[in-house]
Specification:
elongated; 4 helices; five-stranded antiparallel sheet; single chain; alpha+beta; 5 strands
Length: 163
């Protein structure tokens, strides 16, 4: 995760991940492909619904977070590699929980994404690896939380034997 070993991950660390701007076009395209519900795709139907206008699918906001996460991770790893640092192997994620979409996202909203490290621990079942727990968030241009979840990812420890 961002080119760091488990021992480098400190609870409370905030990792900014950039922004994504939602547009009528990308909301409609995502929703057509993955969430074909009227209030995501049709302005007329959305006007009659709970949000009063077209809203992005919740998983669209999560997909935008993932794209920002991958880009942030790639940039950090490239910088560390260019500096001659040893990089940890990239581990899998055992999942996410507590996903929330407390406010709708509409065309024109620019969402700023970040992840905050909550906890780290070594894994007895996987020597040389640990678990990092983080909170992912997206805030709109007014600073209002629009998406959050808790994630976990396996991270290699320093001195672990490379795979």
């Amino acid at each position: 995760m961002i080119g760091l070993f488990l021992e480098d991950m400190k609870p409370g660390t905030i990792i900014p991940q950039g922004t994504y701007t939602f547009t009528d076009e990308n909301i409609r395209a995502y929703s057509t492909a993955f969430a074909p519900v009227g209030f995501h795709m049709n302005a007329g139907e959305a006007a009659q619904g709970l949000f009063g206008k077209t809203a992005a699918a919740g998983f669209h906001t999560c997909s935008a977070w993932m794209a920002r996460f991958v880009a942030t991770n790639a940039k950090a790893r490239a910088a560390a590699e260019a500096a001659g640092e040893v990089l940890p192997d990239i581990g899998p994620s055992p999942g996410i929980s507590n996903i929330r979409w407390p406010r709708p996202v509409h065309a024109g909203d620019e969402i700023a994404y970040r992840s905050t490290i909550i906890a780290t621990r070594a894994l007895a079942s996987r020597p040389g690896w640990g678990m990092v727990t983080f909170r992912a968030e997206g805030h709109n241009q007014a600073g209002v939380l629009v998406m959050s979840f808790e994630g976990r990812v396996l991270v290699q420890s320093r001195g672990a034997t490379p795979a």
